[in-house]
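Re: your question about Ribosomal RNA large subunit methyltransferase F

S., sorry for the slow reply, the queue was backed up all week. Below is exactly what I fed in.
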Amino acid sequence: MGDKSAATLHPRNRHQGRYDLDALCALQPDLAPFVHPNPVGEATIDFADPQAVRLLNGALLRQQYGIQFWDLPEGYLCPPIPGRADYLHYLADLLASDRGGEIPRGGSVRVLDVGVGANCIYPLIGHAEYGWRFVGSDIDPLAVQTARVIVQANRLDKQIELRQQPVAQAIFHHVLHADEHFDLTLCNPPFHSSADEARAGSARKWRNLGRARPGQPVLNFGGQSNELWCPGGEMAFLRRMVDESRDMAEQCVWFTSLVSRAETITAMRPFLSQVGAVEVRTVAMAQGQKQSRFLAWTFHSAEARSGGA
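Result:
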């Protein structure tokens, strides 16, 4: 068994309780050398080791979601899967809130993943759980190429489409086609304003957990610069996203993004009002010691979202 997932995970999240590392090692034999006993004798891995996390993710994706091939180039963001799955389950609840509590499933639901990354985690899990179709965009050509290899290897070409964003500062422009529509967008934005801030934040996290040690990788989940930071940090990124969403208001029902700082939500609300968002929601999530949230906004009335207009 492995480290506990928090009891606060979404009720539909498959990653409740402890990882069955014996079963996961049977699926991913390369994981076995990274399994060791923790101080109380329970099997675990070192979550500060990027290679161990990558192999664990590959095993989890195979065991829980039927993904037979998944791999990343060195240094690319290797995200913790339980938290990524949580975002998707809460997004399903968001869509269900407009449909009398019934979660929409199947390929008629289209989702745009802004910054899909080389890992392609959201489309893989979202399609496996709900049958949704995804478009994933990214500014990094290698990320798009890697994600496409994963998609093709798992024969998901018809369900997951990858597009390169050709303009580094654009978010929806140049990616959305004029005649297409989405039920929602999702995004795990670059939270930091610089590489130094990203390193300092990660080091602070390990100190708070009492696990800092010499030679430890600072960014245990990896990540390229565009995955971790951008000028102005998450506030500047979200302002661009909100501003562009106004131009795409008729093409998408719900726009959403993860937000790392609660104060960012407070600062964004007046701007969302200025651009004409008719409803804004903040959805809280928690995984163990980590508190997270996403911001959701729409330009469509509740009647229109429920099919009444």
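The first helix runs from residue 21 to 27. Residues 78-305 form a domain with the Rossmann fold fold (CATH 3.40.50.150).

Happy to talk it through on Thursday.
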